[in-house]
Amino acid sequence: MTWHEEPLIGFDLETTGTDPAEARIVTAAIVETKGGEPVASRRWLADPGVPIPAEAAAIHGVTDERAAALGRPAREVAEEIAATLAGHWEAGVPVVAYNACFDLSLLSAELRRYGLPPLRERLGGEEVGPVVDPYTIDRAVDRYRKGKRTLAAVCREYGVVLDGAHEAEADALAAVRVARAIAVRHPGVAETDPARLHRDQVRWYGEWAAGFQKWLRKQGDATAVVDPRWPLR
């Protein structure tokens, strides 16, 4: 049985901003799936401890007032998310996250911020993973397809229904279903074991970063640097 037919863990964060080094967790979801269907889930609402910009609140719907009234301390939320993900990795279950480099790097920044053990330490010093990132895989296997690569756009490409975009649980489940759809369309992806697929994504992301950096510099930004590290910066 190939990896996309086995249990998969969907993961998504909604945050205060777009810089994973500075943004804070607002909501999060970890969804256990089998055959692309949810069998269990955990959700979090955090009080990020900083103002939630209006543009971020307009996307995910969480205001300062709601976060302050209903959110849990950000330190507790970050700890529980990290512990839950580490538990799934220790059990050998791949974690699926769309644009995983953002979510995992942001989570890692939160762990550092609160003096909590990093993900790698929780795994006994082993590399974090396996991670399945439909964003990175789709960009590698269908490199020349035109159009956006947002989760909503890629859901449309692969015929995945996305209900409640920018709601963490909905996005986490959609990421799993997109990953499965990519595997169905591209048998080579399906037949690659998760550990090897993880290594492939490290390479694909690095190649993309190098190409994008080269393009930016040709456009006139001579000092442009695109970080090639995946899934953690």
Structure notes:
This protein is an alpha/beta fold. It is built from ten helices and six strands, in the order βββααβαβααβααααα. The chain has helices spanning 54-60, 64-70, 74-90, 100-113, 119-122, 134-141, 151-158, 168-185, 187-190, 194-218; strands spanning 8-15, 25-34, 37-47, 72-73, 95-96, 131-132. The chain has a six-stranded mixed β-sheet with strand order 4-3-2-1-5-6, with helices on both faces. Helix 7 (151-158) crosses helix 8 (168-185). It is globular and about 45 Å long. The chain starts with 7 loop residues before the first strand and ends in a 15-residue tail after the last helix.
Please outline the helices and strands.
Elements: E1 8-15, E2 25-34, E3 37-47, H1 54-60, H2 64-70, E4 72-73, H3 74-90, E5 95-96, H4 100-113, H5 119-122, E6 131-132, H6 134-141, H7 151-158, H8 168-185, H9 187-190, H10 194-218
Parallel strand pairs: 1-5, 3-4, 5-6
Antiparallel strand pairs: 1-2, 2-3
Helix pairs in contact: 7-8
